[in-house]
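Researcher: Please generate the 3D structure of the following complex. Treat every line as part of one assembly.
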Amino acid sequence: MIINHPLLGPRDASEFVYLGDASLMNRPNPKSETAAEDFHAYMYLRDNPPGEHRELWFHEQGDRSWLIVTRNTLTHEITKVELARSSKGLIT
Amino acid sequence: MRYNALQILRQGLTGHKGWKPAWRKADPKPEYDIIIVGGGGHGLATAHYLAKTFKHHKVAVLEKGWIGGGNVGRNTTIIRSNYMLHENEGFYEFSLKLWENQERELNYNSMVSQRGIINLYHSDPQRDAYVRRGNAMALNGADPVLLDQAALRKMCPFLNFDNARFPIKGGLMQPRGGTVRHDAVAWGYARSADQQGVDIIENCEVTGFIINDGICSGVETSRGQIKASKIGVAVAGSSSRVMSMAGMRLPMESHVLQAFVSEGLKPLIPGVITYGAGHFYVSQSDKGGLVFGGDIDGYNSYAQRGNLPVVEDVCEGGVSLMPMIGKARLLRMWGGIMDMSMDGSPIIDKTHIDGLYFNGGWCYGGFKATPASGYCFAQLIATDMPHETAKHYRMDRFSRGLMIDEKGQGAQPNLH
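Model: Done. Output below.
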């Protein structure tokens, strides 16, 4: 797989480390009344969809930026790559 | 029809015209007592034990494609019970005991071959860790044997013992481990279940669950609605997509694992060997091909095929372990979808929906678990009580802090 890095251009996926679903960027509020359940869901439960998946890749062998890659888990086709730090607010 | 020597003789003398299909092509009935979703190894084993041990004969196995076309036909065929944590070891030892009696139980030649498995160690600390694991195995009745380098040299003279970076110092062996003809496992369970009245319904995809007031009373399928008071789901890599139809999110991700077969070679590798310094495991099939594999690719996938960096990594591991295979040609490679759980261990449990049971999260260790998974899942569905060896495989263990994490990696599925 080739990941089209927004700053560095096309890079081989083996330069990256995979973390998982991009919703991991949304930490729950620890002060919420439902914090225990929220953190359980955040930490352990995943949508794990067949099809389009927004996910976090870390460019460890490169510029060490975090990317949000939109990739189809049925075909491995990558349709969108963005810098995680430029994504605005919460991801749904 | 029972299979035996007399039958072979009789069929041989009559032109092999009397063999019957090993199972019927069943059409769905409107209602069963129990439905098993997923006609893989675990689902078929569950149906077999439901009928044979727990005397439930109004059972259907629903499979969206053909039986045995998923992971039970895609793995590297290894059986073993060399785990360390007691929550796992008792279960896998139970499974190995069932393997040892499987051919008699099923009247089917699944070619269970206890040729032994050796985990290599490359340093003193790694040896100590294996001693500890061996002791944990022994506590659960398994058969660990610690091999020093001299003993290992006798068994496997071809290994790269004097590698400068990762010298091979010995291995932890389990003589009762080995390999099984994986397709025959699916066919053997299917045939046995079928003979006891279970309907095996292929090309029947589950498209929804019928759930009212927290009670599941059947499934919608591509071949119409089917009712049942109990429904068990055993669909491995498709767990998340199937259980999402019941509104559930699971503690797992689906990942692709690749496996490989070389061209046929003369008999070379006595049993199963796993590399302790890289991720590589290998055995030799009865046809002579080296059957080997390594790590998962590491990203969510439902594609049943992987990418080249892992191919390279696996082959590097193999060649560094036994340089002599460097000139063997790769014949085939393929991928399967693993239900990677958050702690690397499986789930066999009821769900919060009455009548709906779940079996999954096998990561890439599902094949060796097939008989025990089927037995324990059948017991849970039939009696609503977990089997003694599977009682820790609960759905809620993540919220209760009771993870079963052999490698201590935490909630990162691609590291298990």
